[in-house]
Structure formats: structure tokens, C-alpha cells
């Protein structure tokens, strides 16, 4: 449930679970890590979204570092393979 001020505790817990799944795949699944890394380096947002969809992560964006200086209150952004990735947190 989303409120006007940002993510709720449920939103944060759901996001943390999805992010842990992603981190685990990147660490231990070399095939996934290779595909995700290649798509990230190329800035191929469609491929990144396709790889994240089975994890239930929708609406992720990929852009050059520094394009967006501050994520929205309902986004989590991080840098991977030289590109900024943002995922929605609020549901």
C-alpha cells in the first residue's frame, strides 16, 4: 500500500526480498550474471526488464550515471556496470 510520503513498511520489505533475490542471482548464477551485466553495460533497458520480470520486478530503468541526481521517494537506484539502475519500491 502506497502513501503520499513514500514507501510503507510493507513496500520496503517486499522490495528488500526482491533485491535479495537479484543479488543472489548476480552472485551465484553465472549465466544470469553474464546476461544482466551485458545488458547493463549496453544500457539495454528492455533486456534488463526482461531478466528482472521473473523476479516480479517491474518498471526498472537503466541510464548513464549522473543522468538523474536524485531518485523519487518510491525508487531505489544503484550503479552496476557503469549504469544507473532504478527500481520502483512503492506498490
Set out the fold topology.
Elements: H1 9-28, H2 30-42, H3 45-52, E1 61-64, E2 75-80, E3 83-88
Antiparallel strand pairs: 1-3, 2-3
Helix pairs in contact: 1-2, 2-3
Overall shape: it is: globular
Largest sheet: 3 strands, antiparallel
Overall pLDDT level = 88
Give the proportion of residues in helices: 40-55%
Secondary-structure element series: HHHEEE
Uncertain runs are none
Strand content: 15-25%
What is the structural class?
alpha+beta
Radius of gyration, in Å, reads 13 Å
Count of beta strands: 3
Total number of helices: 3
Walk me through this protein's architecture:
Helix content is 45%, strand content 18%. By secondary structure, it is an alpha+beta fold. The chain has a three-stranded antiparallel β-sheet. Strand 2 and strand 3 (83-88) form a beta hairpin. It is globular, with a radius of gyration of 13 Å. It starts with 8 loop residues before the first helix and ends with a strand. The mean pLDDT is 88.
Amino acid at each position: 500500500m502506497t502513501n503520499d510520503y513514500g514507501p510503507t513498511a510493507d513496500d520496503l520489505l517486499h522490495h528488500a526480498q526482491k533485491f535479495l533475490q537479484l543479488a543472489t542471482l548476480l552472485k551465484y548464477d553465472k549465466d544470469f550474471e553474464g546476461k544482466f551485466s551485458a545488458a547493463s553495460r549496453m544500457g539495454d533497458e528492455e533486456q534488463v526488464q526482461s531478466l528482472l520480470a521473473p523476479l516480479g520486478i517491474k518498471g526498472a530503468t537503466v541510464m548513464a550515471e549522473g543522468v538523474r541526481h536524485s531518485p523519487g521517494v518510491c525508487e531505489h537506484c544503484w550503479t552496476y556496470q557503469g549504469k544507473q539502475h532504478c527500481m520502483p519500491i512503492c506498490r
